[in-house]
Write a structure and sequence with these properties.
Helix 8 runs parallel beside helix 11, helix 10 packs across helix 11 and helix 11 crosses helix 12. The termini are far apart. It is globular and about 75 Å long. It contains 15 helices and twelve strands.
């Protein structure tokens, strides 16, 4: 299949690295996005987010002519849909938010003028069970026959995307056996991990199951941290000692769960089966509520320190991204905590070494914060905060560690 034409629809955190890796494997890759500024950046071989090795890879592929970008799809052999699948805006704040498949539908409809028999359409966007079949029905309704459809979710770790795109096992979910075989042949050009064939529906549910499993385990750790706090016990020591059991492996708690996967995907299962997915729903609620608990805990400490100082103490929030050492702020619980503290009129500065600007938040270097703040709150375990010299300075101040850096 090397040398065939490939169109990637959606050039975000998944689509752009996939386009670059596919181009390096020998495909002629064309990226499509509705954001003209983003398309222009890619055409000039620049990227809009930090990802190890990605900018150099894109520069090479653009320079050598294997990667181009535009606003509208064009005829290809393989089409890969990597668009967002957020919640419906009107369901925000509801007990069970509903998935919004508008972007997937729009991407499919945009392909209709260029699709033809023998093409392969792959969906990588995390989606509810049945999405691949829905996409096929949109194409069939348009009178286009002979198109193959597959669902092949990504399994990547932000910050290490290029490596994991190539090395991790990949689920290949075909709507038909022929679709699975063709999708397997496509990914076989650049994926060195296992290529595991199954049905589209099983692949769709596997992706949701993977992230729901992680969410449930994180929720247990987060709830355990609340219980330990009620008893006045250090949760880190509780977990460390409990994990000495040969069959126990409790994760570390944090300030919640962020990102566009674990914080979102479990709701797709809950929305489809609210009376059945009780454990998954409860885990989501535990993790979604953790930032509120963190804000309340900080507010109590802030009040006590302010009383001692005779003025409103300044709080330094350490870390704003949704996980350590990346510049991704999607659904970040640390960012939510920081904004909620500001909304309470608490003087807040933040230290975020992976960004130089975040709307409405005063960003300082760690050195600047150490000279001006009264209370330090570790929200994300960035490597800068874990350095012995940084920890030594933080221990000289009032310091609350929610990120297990100490």
């Amino acid at each position: 299949m090397s040398g065939m034409q490939v169109t990637i629809v959606g050039l975000g955190y998944i689509g752009l690295p996939t386009a670059a890796v596919a181009a390096r494997s020998g495909f002629q890759v064309y990226g499509v996005d509705v954001n003209k500024a983003l398309v222009d950046k890619i055409s000039s071989a620049t990227v809009q987010f930090e990802e190890d090795g990605l900018e150099d890879l894109i520069n090479q592929q653009v320079t050598e002519g294997r990667l181009t970008a535009g606003l509208l799809p064009r005829p290809s052999d393989v089409f890969v849909i990597c668009v967002p699948t957020p919640f419906k805006s009107e369901s925000a704040g509801q007990e069970i938010p509903e998935p919004d498949m508008t972007y997937v539908r729009q991407a499919t409809e945009a392909l209709l003028p260029v699709l033809q028999a023998g093409n392969l359409v792959i969906i990588e966007s995390t989606s509810p069970v049945g999405t691949t079949r829905m996409v096929s029905e949109i194409v069939a309704t348009a009178g286009i026959d002979g198109v193959l459809f597959a669902y092949c979710p990504e399994r990547i770790l932000p910050g290490n995307t290029v490596y994991e795109l190539e090395q991790n096992d990949r689920i290949i979910g075909g709507l038909t056996p022929d679709a699975a075989a063709k999708a397997k042949a496509f990914y076989g050009n650049f994926v060195r991990g296992g290529l595991l064939e199954t049905s589209a529906e099983i692949a769709e549910m596997c992706k949701l199951a993977e992230n729901s499993f992680r969410d449930v385990n994180i929720a247990f750790a987060n709830e355990l941290s609340l219980l330990a706090a009620e008893h006045g016990l250090p949760v880190a020591e509780v977990i460390e000692l409990a994990n000495r059991h040969p069959r126990v492996n409790i994760l570390q708690p944090g300030v919640g769960v962020g990102g566009h996967c674990i914080a979102v995907d479990p709701w797709f299962l809950v929305a489809a089966s609210p009376d059945t997915a009780k454990l998954i729903q409860t885990a989501r609620q535990v993790n979604d509520n953790k930032p509120d608990w963190v804000v309340n805990f900080i507010s109590v400490q802030h009040k006590a320190i302010s009383a001692e100082l005779g003025r409103s103490a300044k709080v330094a929030c350490l870390g704003l991204s949704y996980k350590p050492d990346i510049d991704d702020f999607r659904e970040s619980p640390a960012l939510k905590v920081t904004r909620r503290l500001i909304a309470q009129n608490i003087p807040v500065v933040a230290v975020e070494p992976n960004s130089d600007h975040i709307d409405g938040i005063d960003l300082l270097s760690l050195e600047e914060a150490l000279s001006t703040a009264d209370l330090f709150v570790a929200l994300v375990g960035h490597k800068q905060f874990r350095e012995p010299s940084s920890l030594a300075e933080l221990r000289k101040h009032s310091f609350i560690d929610f990120a297990n850096i100490d």
